[in-house]
Amino acid sequence: MKRLLFVILAAALFWSGYWLIGSRGAEAGFATWFEARRTEGWQADYSNLRVAGFPNRFDTTFTDLALADPTTGWAWRAPFFQLLALSYKPTQVIAVFPPQSQLSTPLDRFTLASADMRASLALDPAPRLPLNRATLIGTQIRITGTEVTELDSLTLATERLPGTDHGYRYGALAHGVRLPTPLVARLARGIALPDQIATLQLDFDGDFDRPWDLDALEHARPQVERLKLRLLKAEWGSLKLAATGELTVDGAGTPTGEIAIKAENWRDMLRVAVAAGALPESLASSVETALELAANLSGRPDTLNVTLGFSGGRIHLGPVPLGPAPVLRLR
Description:
Elements (H helix, E strand, L loop, with lengths): L1 H38 L3 E3 L2 E5 L4 E13 L4 E13 L2 E8 L3 E5 L4 E5 L2 E8 L7 E14 L3 E13 L6 E12 L2 H8 L8 E12 L5 H5 L5 E13 L2 E11 L5 E10 L1 H11 L4 H18 L4 E9 L2 E4 L2 E5 L7
Antiparallel strand pairs: 1-3, 2-3, 3-4, 4-5, 4-6, 5-8, 6-7, 7-9, 8-9, 9-10, 10-11, 11-12, 12-13, 13-14, 14-15, 15-16, 16-17, 17-18
């Protein structure tokens, strides 16, 4: 009995020591990371950093967090932010976001509010902690900038593709997307559209030139070399869009490849694209004529099955040029 008690006490002392060393190491590691960012010219501040959760967790809470990268122009401020991990699985983390925070981009400043938003991350136990998988879930999201956008729910997920070091699969699913009323009015232009998009779904693979790890956050983002679009799906009232395809991307971010599109009530979509500035009004008539021919050949005039070609920095619909292709570079 005494021997058993001794073993229990020894194990408790060992585990307590492990937790104390681990918590102190976590505090020191975070403090060092913030100091390194400040040395590089970032704003990287917090009013308090605390690690709790004894005996089985390392729960880190930052208070009055402020991060700003002057190179990209992105910044984030939050009253608190938490990283929660089991002490015996420190590279599997749950991130808890505050009900409200502020995000600044080169284009605008936004207030992000939600009823609940959290993320889970699984990192590989390597020196630069490469990402293995991650999921973010949010409900009742409100994004307030110059205008207001709301989402009933949002799920984002990624995981590294088996057998690859730099390949990832990505997924996004949003329900109840309410665009700003002035924007809907501009896009609709007399088209009967509801005030919310019922579903937005995106599923694609991306091959990058290097892993997503601490270097991606601290220095420069990995750049995409190949995109395989498994599915893009959107439903907005009577407008229904689906797309699949594959693109290769060169060092300048120029895509080459094809995207197959199925569109229901495509004429209204064309009007929305012109109103959004995605299609020059000067090309709208010629594009509509070409699409009219393609739709009539299919036997369903209101449903379109076409392929967009990307080459030489341009987008083409068969022989009809639509305009410049987007540059796929991450800042």
